[in-house]
Amino acid sequence: MITSLADTARTAATWMSGITAMVLLFVVLALLALTLAAVVSALVNRDTTGGGKLLWVIFVLWFPLFGAIAWFVVGRRGHLNRFLGIDKGRARHTIPVSVGQHSDAVPQRNGSLRHV
Question: What letter would DSSP give residue 67?
Answer without folding.
Answer: H
